[in-house]
Design brief:
The protein is of the alpha+beta class. It is built from 7 helices and 17 strands. The protein has a 7-stranded antiparallel β-sheet, with no helix packed on it. Bound molecules: FE2/S2 (inorganic) cluster and fe (ii) ion. Residues 208, 214, 218-219, 328, 333 line the site of fe (ii) ion (FE2).
Length: 383
Amino acid sequence: MPVIATPVIEEILADLRGYLDDEPPALSLPPSAYTSQELWEMERERIFHCSWMLVAHVDQLAETGAYVAVSIAGESVVVTRAGDGTLHAMSPICRHRLMPLIEPGAGRTDAFTCRYHLWKYALDGRLRGAPYMGGNKDFEPKDCRLPQFAVQEWNGFVWVNLDAGAEPIGAHLDLAAHQFTNYRLAEMVQVDSWSLQWQANWKLVMENGHENYHVIGLHRETLEPFMPGGGDVHVEQYSPWVLHARIPFVAPVQPEALALDEIQRANGMLLLSFPSSAFIGLGDQIVWLSFIPLAIDRVQVVGGVLTTPELATGSDAVARTQDAVTAMINDEDRIGLEAVQRGVGSRFAERGHLSPKEQPGVLAFYRNLARALLREGPWPGAL
Ligand code: FES
Ligand SMILES: [Fe+2]
């Protein structure tokens, strides 16, 4: 859909342009950036319909027939493991009369059968059956296939891009891979996972994910003792898609299963992939999260906890971090961000001043957002 320029969107884009300056304003986004329907339409077109989204860990797609279905900014996607071992990402919308074949979720199936008129699709999206269609001379069953999207596995993480011709994300993630070598990502196994919905604009959620300052407030009982909100976040941008951040962190139990270096022992090692996916090394574990927008004011939060195969069989360390992370994402961030979502709609809302504690991460996110929407600077991110 073409994006129609309106005064509100022009004002938002003018404010965004400021974040591309060498000295960007230490201010939050204009409140209308969280409520403007026009900006949301632009984000769908310029960001979510052409960006890589982390949708699953490979453990969820290990067996033939395993699938994960999500909705990316209103567009349904299913990722499957086909019989030949390959992953497919495709549109699960029936090619007959557009009934969704599957709702968001995960599971295992041998095929996707449309409940409307029973057309049946294989795990790679090819049509396998269509009752009573033989009399339609224009219909060619062998040409009928669910539209395919780009899918890539990187170190156990499964990424999807609605743009089938998108440049692979792997080469971008590789630029930060040395920071995570000691975590042995490809060997890790998933010991917990979740899928939740939060009533908040995706940018509020991502700002929150780029700063540690809010730990002194929202997480003072849970995270503050081992990841103090007053800690200074160190940020490195490896590509327009890949940002690495280090957040001072003291593991509640010293990591033993992994040979982490001093920096990794003293920090949460975060990789943020624009627009809205992330994983973080926390001692012997990796926590991954992806904030997949469903609408202007709603995100699907999917994620999981990974650890080494040795620790996966029940360890206190895993349980303790899991409890804290689960408490954080289930309650504290969600409740906080849903409240902020109500705040951005106030007619008295204005841009807020950012603390030096939150500036490195939040301004890096705003810069990537500005690049994506304005299509200025190194975008869409060729190496
Ligand atoms: S819409 Fe799917 S079979 Fe008719
Ligand atoms: Fe948080």
